[in-house]
Amino acid sequence: MHCAQAMWHRLVPQKMLGWPTRGETAALHMSFVHSRFYHALGVLLHYGSPLVLLVDPDPKSVGQILTSTRPGILETHPNTYVLWEDLADAPGAPLASVRCFGSTFDAIHPRTVRRLLGASKRGSPWLTQLYGQSETGPVSAWWYTRRSARKVNSRLVGIGLPGFTRVRVVDQDGNRAKPGTHGHIEARTYGRCLTYLGGEQLYKRQLDGDWWRMGDMGYLNRWGALHLIDREVDQIDSVASSLEIEDVLMSRLEELREVIVVPNGAGEAVPVVCTRNDEPLAPDRWKRATEDLPALAGPMQWRFEDLPRTSTWKIKKLEIARMLASGAVPAVRYGG
Fold this sequence. Notes:
Rossmann fold, twelve-stranded mixed beta sheet, four-stranded mixed beta sheet
């Protein structure tokens, strides 16, 4: 449940972030029921940007539309950007005109950041990453340029928005964690929702005074920048960060469309992988890519279409873990 004041506190910093690209044509492919969509409209219409709304995420369809409209702003879900990596060298250079790529729903893989920025022909393109959730709106932001993308750490999700939000990391007892120490991420923002309709007690359990428990594990570096480790409910005892492993594998294996590391019934870390065009996963390449990583169970190959997802294409890891535990596995084939 939200109110006008909270929505205003979310909209204003997003308007400030949108000022450098004011008036540029914007192409959007995102869930129409997500709060980000309406804030994006508020920003783009305020600055008079022509809008291109993309319904079909298929790269062939998107490539044709981007080539004909030449947007300067492009925003979609991180998992859709992975699919659109194919546009980087597609006929007509559909990403050539993009000055700003927006990724505001989830952390994005480093490989994807490099391919997107490398495909732009603009002088100084950048990718903006916002971290937040529906209950809070964006609470931190970070930018990647071509230069910084060479050493991109996509789990670095930025700093609080000055004057609007603050972020901190606390230990199990609620005490502030030292820089570099892992803990629970909390945020303080005027954009926080008022309550959960019919779920007041659940809402209160997320509060620590004025601070809101984000449900993620992470740490702050010495300069106060926030790094994600894992969702609290997605932690696996045998690995420090499943998100980091996923990023490494995506960077090392170009044929992967997605990789998700989840626990099986025995608590082992199981990589569920999807390849482009469902091509077989080469066992020798997988072995070389994982030889210096924490111990993993053999990979399970699924079709991307079989991965349970939210409306913003976030992968439902808990549901995949339940599927593995119950044996309801729609595997295409096994690697290893």
